[in-house]
Amino acid sequence: MVSTVVAVPLLISMPEIAELAGVQRPVVTTWRRRHPQFPAPVDEDRGRPLFDARGVVDWLVDTGRADRREIEPDLWLHLLGCLAGGLPLGRGGRRRAATLRPRELTAAITALICLRHLDDELLSPHRLTERQVIADLRERARDADPGDDLLRGEINALPDDAAWLAAAVDELVEAAWGCTEAYERVLAARNRFTVPELYADAVNPALASLIAGLSGAREYADRYGTVLVADPAAGPGDLLVAVHHQLGEYATPTFVAAEADPFRARILRRRLAVHGLGAADRQVNVGTELPGPVPDVLVTRLPYQPKEGRGEANPLAAVRDITEELGPGQTAVVLGPADLLVGALPPYRPAARTRNELLSSGRVEAVIQLPGGLVPFRPGYQTALWVLRREEGSKWQGRVLLADVSDRPLTADVVEALVWDVTTWRRNGHQPHQHLRAHAVQAAVADLIAPRRPLTTRRSAGPRVLTRDVQETIARVTDIEVELDELAATELRPAVRSRLASRDDAVSAPTQSIGALVKAHQLTVYNGYRVAAADIVRDGHHRVLGVPELTGTSAVGVRVVDRGVLAAKYPRVRLTEPDDLVVTLVPRLCVYRDQDGFSVVEFPARVLRIPPSERYRFTPRVLAELLTHVGQAGRAAGAVRAASRLDELQIPLLAPAEVARLDMLLAVIDARRAMARREIDLLDELGRLAVTGVTNGTLTMTETPIVG
Fold first, then answer.
1. Inter-CA distances, 571 with 33, 169, 553, 566, Å
2. In whole angstroms, what separates CA 567 from the centre of its chain?
3. Separation of alpha carbons 448 and 466, rounded Å
4. Whole-angstrom Cα distance, residue 441 to residue 462?
5. Is the distance from CB of 521 to CB of 534 less than 8 angstroms?
6. pLDDT tens digits, 496-513
7. Which domain of life, per UniProt (predicted)?
8. Are 86 and 133 in contact (CB under 8 A)?
9. Are the folds of 200-301 and 325-459 the same?
């Protein structure tokens, strides 16, 4: 392990603990209050308690709230990110401040990881003092990188007192199980290091994977044994690394790139080096010109420009240059703004003429409109992809594939389907009629070069899918009509007799707070649980009851959690019992009676349970209505404000005989309400099916009477 001579800063505040653990800030306060084993503060910074970071990590792991293999790399990334953000770290009342600016610190961290990868030695050995560590690093950098192509300049620039940084990077590498994983974790968390050059143009990993798959690099390498991959605007190399990830360990690729910013170019060189590419297999030029011969595969992005600042510029001229250099069987994938690549361009713009020329050349294989949010730093930036390929003598030259997935998230399934649609269309002997396509459709180029014609279309279902969908729709319509007939046959329902009458002595029922009822063991309350959004799915075993269900924004049963996930990640969760009440005060008082039980209650909702011995005082149905009545009544008489806590709510206390009679009436009301609600739901569904089928052309209406 790493040296203990160097005092690495390991203090962390409560907001930082919350970020590290992936919870809200108040949760940490709750942990401190409820769990005596939670680490005590060891220092403070202007009144803020500071905790030993290692102790916090150990507590999170021991209590099952974190996995050590995941949280330890995150801890070191978090602490290094705090340094880059200018947050002081350290002991002794004043936390130690970073001596390197964010850009210099990021360069130093990546250089140290690369150096450890190259010579496979600890950066901060046990035998060396703090000053000896830096001298040793400079000597090792001179031996590993004599020409200063990768890291020597960054290592030489380290201050003499920065040995703590080497120890911290050693810890990060050990926690991440290797230099490659550590380097990728640093770049995955690049926004923490406050270096805009690294994160301003970063793309979503799913988009990088899509570009790599569409490039056909893996197929090319499988056929020829090697592949030359290039990016003329590489940045920190996200697209190149995505291609490398898909190639696998048996390919022998060569990567060439151009990057105008020397800082990002050196970041990229180090990144390719830690991925195992030797000097002969990687070449990164500082500038805009690619080194070497024409690549077999090219992946790149057009530089971002605000729409209002483009003027008469023609960004597609760069795409034309790329297209003209493609050789037979070579592919290029270009990411750019959707309004330029797929939008309806005015005919007088130079970009419109260039786009038509490219389409007419027959080298545009596919055009894909993407969903928003794939460039996280610019969430409003809508993007699209062009796949360019040179196929000599193909009879499909006059056609192009169009796909529009802007209405759905770019999941792994969507990425896989898009790659399959494009790569099996006409490449490597494939024929368009041999494969069904999930998202893409063929279009004639002649139909797309008309003025102001967008290059987008929604895929209509194929004949088999349409036939199956129509059959399922007609079957569902028949089921709805049968159920509506059954409900209509029971239209003559017995009259409701509420047995309500006036009282001569009108006296309001006494009230008691829920807190008092809980203390008297007449009610039981327990809190809901925080469930990660990623663990709430649509196909599972236990319903999730939270604010969306109680307020009506989500139907009960839509959000569920798998019982395996529940047992593995939330072993302390208590499921509801039949007739438990689920209550929330956020954003308003809402109550739901869980008749079936076995549900997971999501914080901030809470559970009210009536002990069997107290069912004469309240029934679940009566208590739910009383709580709803309290919520509608608002502020109690004589109160300055409405109750803001569940235990402050005042519940009317009814005589046991009245509770029994009221429960009988509410049961009848619930039954009638359920029948009415079911009929409304069926009518709504029938209307949706009819409108959808008629408008998309899959259904028609006959002349038979609608009623009767």
1. 21, 35, 28, 6
2. 23
3. 26
4. 10
5. no
6. 777 777 777 767 788 888
7. Bacteria
8. no
9. yes
Q: DSSP state, 528?
A: -
Q: Which residues lie closer than 8 Å to 211 by C-beta, 6 or more apart?
A: 239, 242, 299, 333, 335, 385
How is domain 325-459 classified at the CATH fold level? Rossmann fold (3.40.50)
pLDDT on residue 271: 97
Reported as a single tens digit per residue, the pLDDT across 471-496 is 888 888 898 888 888 888 775 566 77
pTM comes to 0.72
Instruction: Determine the CATH number of domain 200-301.
Output: 3.40.50.150
pLDDT of residue 82: 66
Q: Would you kindly state where each structural domain of the chain is located, as residue ranges? A: 11-198, 200-301, 325-459, 511-653
Measured CA to CA, the distance from residue 179 to residue 184 in angstroms comes to 9
Two tokens, residue 478: 């028949």
Helix or strand (DSSP H, E) at 545: strand 542-545
pLDDT band at 234 (very low <50, low <70, confident <90, very high): very high
CB 383 within 8 Å of CB 375: yes
**CATH number at 511-653:** 3.90.220.20
Query: If you average pLDDT over each of 74-83, 261-270, 327-336, 354-363, which comes out highest?
Result: 261-270
∠ CA 472-475-478, rounded to 5°: 150
- Polymer length in residues for the chain: 708
- Rg for the chain, CA atoms, rounded: 33
